[in-house]
Every structure is written in C-alpha cells, then in structure tokens.
Amino acid sequence: MEKFPEWLNATLASDASEGEGVLPSNILPLQANSLVVGPAYGVLMSQDDNLSVRKVLENLPAPGTVLVVAGGSTSRTATLGGLMALEMQNGGIAGLVTDGLVRDSREIREMSFAVWCRGVTPIAPKKNGPAIVGGTVSIGGKVIRDGDLVIADDDGVVIWPQERVAELLVKAETRLKQDNERLARLQMKKQ
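That's the Putative 4-hydroxy-4-methyl-2-oxoglutarate aldolase sequence above. Prediction below.
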C-alpha cells in the first residue's frame, strides 16, 4: 500500500482540493485525535440493514483500506457495533466512514478503531440485504469510488479522486509550507 506523508490532514486536503470532496459536517469522528489516510472501499447498506458490512468481513479488502459505508443517512439502526469493529481492525481495515450510526461506541473508542459517523444508537440492524460491496457510493452528494483517497481527522472527512492524488498532494504540501512560514513569522512577532 502507498505510504502518505504524516503531515497530511483534512484541512490541508480540503485546501488543496478547494473544498471539493468534503463530506457533510454531520459526519464526525467517534473519538478525538483520530486520523486515517487510505484508499476507500465502498459499501452500500440498505436502510436499517447492515448485511453489506457483514459481507465485507467475509472477503476483506487490502490492509490499510478505509471502509466507506453509504446508505445509512436515514437509518435508525447501527451500521456496526463493537464486535464488527474489532473484526475489521483485526482484518487490517484502517477505519470506517459512514453516513449511518454506530453502537457500542465506548468499546469502539477503547479499541482505538477510527470511525467517522452521523451518531450513535443502541438499536441493532437487520441483516436481510440487499448487500452491495465494492464500487461507487455517494455520501452527502459526494461520489466515492474504490481507490479514492480518504483523509479524515477531527475536522472531518475529505475524499480525493484517485487520479488527482499526486497533484493534490503537491498542492497540500505547498499550502503546508506557506502555513509554516506564516507561523514562523507570527511566532517571531510574539517574542
């Protein structure tokens, strides 16, 4: 798997893409100080049903992948709970981004599995399907394809199209250098 620079974060990713690919602000980290950067693997769940997420565990994507589960924006039940999160973590999945809800939030936080979601619920999902695993999904009007780059931290989630990653990395690094120069000037004035 490709290694990305440690400095890459959602703010720089958003600046580089001029705000394109930023997911809705109601999709928040379950735990503070979470950061994940990795290729997306799309999953489409049915309302109140997570059979598709269960199917991912039967045939795991490459280690370091970020699972992007769409279709949960109106669900009242959990996209996953603690046991599935642990299975994902053990299987090498780097994190989860969903427009749905999760349950067992304390367990998930304690295992330090990186999750961005719309909220929490105690309600278990159905497992009837249909199950769509892999491919293209949409969250908040943003299209996410397998292999697009997910950059997620405390400030939110940004998706970079895979064919623009190299170009956007250069833009993000340029912005980082500008910010660091400005910071150095501001610190000099403070002394």
